[in-house]
Amino acid sequence: xxxxxxxxxxxxxxxxxxxxxxxxxxxxxxxxxxxxxxxxxxxxxxxxxxxxxxxxxxxxxxxxxxxxxxxxxxxxxxxxxxxxxxxxxxxxxxxxxxxxxxxxxxxxxxxxxxxxxxxxxxxxxxxxxxxxxxxxxxxxxxxxxxxxxxxxxxxxxxxxxxxxxxxxxxxxxxxxxxxxxxxxxxxxxxxxxxxxxxxxxxxxxxxxxxxxxxxxxxxxxxxxxxxxxxxxxxxxxxxxxxxxxxxxxxxxxxxx
Length: 256
What we know:
By secondary structure, the protein is mainly α. It has helices spanning 4-29, 31-34, 46-70, 75-90, 95-99, 107-129, 133-157, 159-165, 170-174, 176-200, 204-219, 224-227, 231-234, 238-255.
């Protein structure tokens, strides 16, 4: 933890970059579906939008390469996996034509994509912070489960659009009541994983930060429509930001 301040600062910056690039890729390829029910930043200029998305992806990978060379080589491949999943998840033109399936077309692939993609980003963020996976693996699983729940929450908000375009999400296939039960289940699993992390953790501030995040997500679940106005910032995910502050505080403690 001798260089805890630059590591934690870099991790926060990395979290914002990964959140923005994932959200931008999704919005660009969803612009046709979004037109009839909400505003999309890429509605009017396709060429500029694609150039913007490619630039964001390139900048994020360059940022990951710099952090990999500085601290942990795993940051670059993990970021590349996360970016690839984000692109494959949304792209109906290139990736689906090549691979034969778009990940968001069915709820099983959608939940796996969201969980694994953001778990990869978070694992890379831990590497930047100098945190060994052996000490923090419950947090990586926690992020994966949390994003499965966030996928269901997003699908509940988009259920009318998904029915119209034929996306086989959990609310469309099983109904909104079942989707809410899935959301409650992921919350319970998160709390159990968090308890495990707190019990075995040598990073008390990071554990407390994770507890704060879970509590805030439960409290603000009913305000998803208001929160959607701040999507580009919130989709960087509070886990990344708050836990980065937690690891910073832990680093300060160890350094002192």
